[in-house]
Amino acid sequence: MNWLAWKMLTGDRTKYLGIVFGVAFGTLLIAQQSSIFVGLMRRTSSQIIDISSADIWVMDRKQRNIDEIRPMPDNRLYQVRGVAGVEWAVRLSKSLVRVRTIDRDSPELNARDGNFTQGILIGVDDASLAGAPLEMLRGNPLDLRRPDGIIIDEDGYKRLFPGQPIQLGKTLDMNDRRAVIVGTCKVTPPFQTFPVIYARYSQAIQFTPRERNSLSFVLAKAAPGQIHQELCQRIEKQTDLKAMTWDAFFWMNIGYFIENTGIPINFGITVTLGFVVGAAIAGQTFYLFTIENLKHWGTLKAMGVTNLRLIGMILFQAGVVGAMGYGIGLGFSALFFEMMERSGQPDLRGMWVPWQVASIAAGAVGLIIVVASLLSLRKVLVLEPAMVFK
User: Fold this and answer.
1) Residues 341 and 275 occupy one common structural domain
2) What dihedral do alpha carbons 221, 224, 227, 228 form, nearest 10°?
3) Using an 8 Å Cβ cutoff, are 368 and 23 in contact?
4) How would you class 330 by CB atoms within 10 Å of its CB: exposed for 0-12, middle for 13-18, buried for 19 or more?
5) Number of domains comprising the chain
6) What phi-psi label fits residue 176: left (phi over 0), alpha (psi between -120 and 50 degrees) or beta?
7) 282 pLDDT tier (thresholds 50, 70, 90)
8) What span, in angstroms and rounded, lies between the C-alpha atoms of 235 and 86?
9) Residue 154: which H helix or E strand, with range?
10) Measured in whole angstroms, how far is the alpha carbon of residue 124 from the centre of its chain?
11) Largest CB tally within 10 Å, which of 129, 133, 278, 339?
12) Residue 301 to residues 162, 304, 384, Cα–Cα distance (Å)
């Protein structure tokens, strides 16, 4: 009977392809927009993702995310180091800085008024370089110890020196101070498409306007055998600061952007529209397909085929077009992100279709199929076999 259901489904190629297109279009919108939303939320915590050497982040008690920073005095570092169970603790600074090129060798740039942009400046511990980039493309993290040395991410370099090959030794101006590029690295793309720049902590505070306090975070490593959550509670009790594990800080940061920005609403509307449009196209086309084949369904009922068997045939048809539409839509979503990655598009770099999004899209397609089937089932179930002979 399934073979017969398949022949009925593919008998009208136009309607058959229309149902598949409706499901594929809905899947494409749901998977693509959901993946972009997940990618954007992940970008809000890009610096947290890249600094994985520390177990615990310590910050001001009122801080709500990684961007709105209330600097702390340097003695906070020694308070954290004095907590039992802390193996080591180091400084970390994070700030926005205006970056200007002063490349005198390029005829395209004016030495006195080069390209400029905002940059994300990360100041890592001078001694251990904890927090330095892990994936170097050129140079070595140890080169940060060179005078005025900085490491910049690859996309940031291309933003400052468009159309030029990557070359170490180029000079930047930050806070009227000279900075020399000694390496390039690959980082998790930030939420704001600013260059990500690394420098030693003592050097980084020279690149920013002077403030009374400059310590943004204290990165701490738990001693072997320590339970991270208990150590966080101990740090908070002794220092009156906020201490969070890596993953807790990651999710708190994402939660802040979900609660305080319009990003979830905007993407939620698009995903909902994708579901509604897919369900409407598939449901209406499948309904018309069933109406046009009522005589065949009536013939089967007249031959003694039970309603349960007819329901199984309709669900088989819906399942086939659902699986095909889901595969096509998900495939085009993955292809879209792959093409963006290969084209070097920085706005969508590092985004993909996570398995969680693929599962959500599969559930949405299942609902679309159920809706399409329910619209058709009633007509078949109430059909009188005698209509065939009229």
Assistant:
1) yes
2) 10
3) yes
4) buried
5) 2
6) left
7) confident
8) 9
9) helix 154-160
10) 25
11) 278
12) 71, 5, 8
CB-based contact 379:291 (threshold 8 Å): yes
Task: Categorize the per-residue pLDDT at 349 as very low, low, confident or very high, splitting at 50, 70 and 90.
Answer: confident
**What's the distance, CA 204 to chain centroid?**
29
Query: What is the domain extent for residue 227?
Result: 73-240
pLDDT the model gives residue 211? 83
Q: If you average pLDDT over residues 330-336, what whole number do you get?
A: 92
Mean pLDDT value of segment 150-168: 91
Taking 70 as the threshold, does the pLDDT of residue 10 lie above it?
yes
Phi-psi region of 58 (alpha: psi -120 to 50; beta: other; left: phi over 0): beta
Instruction: Say if 62 falls within a structural domain.
Output: no
Alpha-carbon gap, residue 382 to 385, rounded angstroms: 9
Mean pLDDT calculated for residue range 114-143: 91
**Quick check: is 268 in a domain?**
yes
Handedness of CA 67, 71, 76, 77 (dihedral sign): positive
Within-domain flag for 252? no
Structure tokens at 198: 């690394």
Contact 352, 40 (CB under 8 A): no
Q: Which of 189, 207, 240 is the last residue of a domain?
A: 240
- Does 233 share its domain with 110? yes
Specify the range with the lowest mean pLDDT, choosing from 4-8, 95-99, 108-112: 108-112
Average pLDDT over residues 231-243: 95
For 360-377, give one letter per residue: b (16+ CB within 10 A) or e.
ebbebbeebbebbbebbb
Element (H, E) at 218: strand 217-222
- Which H/E stretch holds residue 221? strand 217-222
Residues 211 and 320 both lie in one domain: no
Question: Is residue 84 domain-shared with residue 31, that is, in the same domain?
Answer: no
Contacts 24+ apart (CB under 8 A), 306-312: 307/380, 307/381, 309/1, 310/380, 310/381, 311/377, 311/380, 311/381, 312/1
What's the CA gap between 268 and 257, in Å, rounded?
14
DSSP code of residue 60: -
In which residue are the tokens 């690859």 written? 154
